[in-house]
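Entry 0007
Protein: Alpha/beta fold hydrolase
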Amino acid sequence: MRLNRPARPSRRSTLLGVTAAVGLSVAAVTLPGTAGATPPQPVRPTIVLEHGAFADASSWDAVVPRLQRAGYPVVSAANPLRGPAGDAAYLRSVLDHIDGPVVLVGHSYGGTVISQAAAGMEDKVKALVYIAAFLPDAGESSLGLTNKFPGSTLGQAIESVNYTLPDGSQGADVYIEQDKFRHQFAADVPKDKTRLMAAGQRPVAAAALEEKSTQAAWKTIPSWSLITTEDLNIPVAAQRYMSHRAHAHTTTIDASHAVSVSRPEAVARIVEQAARTVR
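Output (structure tokens):
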């Protein structure tokens, strides 16, 4: 009996089979940086909040959780309120202990402090945000800018307390009188809240408001500004003048000087706008 031998595969079919097998193997391999790789995550700068005069870090309490929910690390820094040079040096010591990029936010007199603290720190501080704040140039003081335009009634609402330190140095601290605090500082904040704010307000050294700035970081760092039209501390005309001069991205809102307390969502929104530009 003669058996039939199985047909030998042609050279063409053999090559096709090898090619198909190789193709499957290649398809199963994921090369670095291709479809299987995790896309780069956006940079999340640390938001550093600097309070102003007649307030403390708690003035950011309603802003902080909004920024944290958006994924930003937040530091609500203490402000000694003793003078731009010393306060800026203190703030720089805080910034020195933060890794990565920073968005620096200042309210009121805190704007004077961040303008000086961030000078020369462009590699770290990527954006400045001014919330109802001063944006002084070198040679200007907070008090001088307030008096440059009409509209502030702060001088009629404050009281000064003289002090002598153990080393013999003397000075004066300035407060807002408690019965005038809500009208002057936070007219759109509930009364119960403003009573707490008035009782716990941090005084500012009178000399701090008169001390002239020596540097202006807004000249080299992108800036954002929130202008408050119902502000009785810093005249709205002064805020507009400073914001325009700094070429700041400007938003205007009908709010009192205590806008971080009365309108925290608006404050958080403008801070996030600045933070999203950090690459």
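Curator remark: The first helix runs from residue 11 to 27. The two ends are 83 Å apart (CA to CA).
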